[in-house]
Amino acid sequence: MTSTTTLKRVTNERGAALIVALVMLLVMTVLGISAARNTNLQERMAGNLRDNNLAFQSAERALREGETLLRAATIPPFTGANGLLTMQDDAGQAWFWSDDAWWVANGRAAATVLDDDVVRAPLYVIEELPAVPEAGGSVSFGPLPDVGFYRITAQAQGGTAEAVTILQTHYRR
What we know:
By secondary structure, the chain is of the alpha+beta class. The protein has one domain (2-172). The chain is 39% helix and 23% strand. It has helices at residues 2-12, 16-71, and strands at 84-86, 109-110, 123-132, 137-138, 142-143, 147-157, 164-172. Strands 1, 2, 3, 6 and 7 form a five-stranded mixed β-sheet that branches. The chain has a two-stranded antiparallel sheet with strand order 4-5.
């Protein structure tokens, strides 16, 4: 009699545990896939942030190198070579703003320090702006010499060619 009652109980079960287990497995799979996608997205965001930071630091290095050149006792003439330019027009829009022009050999100066993590050495140009006369003067020395103004523009790429930073500063000498 025991074997017949056991047999009846088995035939009356409908497989609810199997359905619950399959639903739980489906939920766990969806959670696992979304966690993997989220992790992948965060990795890409961190990589892009690193590339942009490398580009910014590299452009900053090129700016400082241009400022160091202007701090020297004498500066080379602004002839349009090696990144030493005169202002191109009254609007201040120079030719080097087009993307391709940055890589022309005579129009820019490459920074001397290259980080291993960046794609290319950062580039910079120094524009000589019109001189401004110094206000005032001296009775014993006469009028003061003109004050020179310079605009330094640097462009750098980060760990990839898509991460580009352009920085600009003005320098008074």
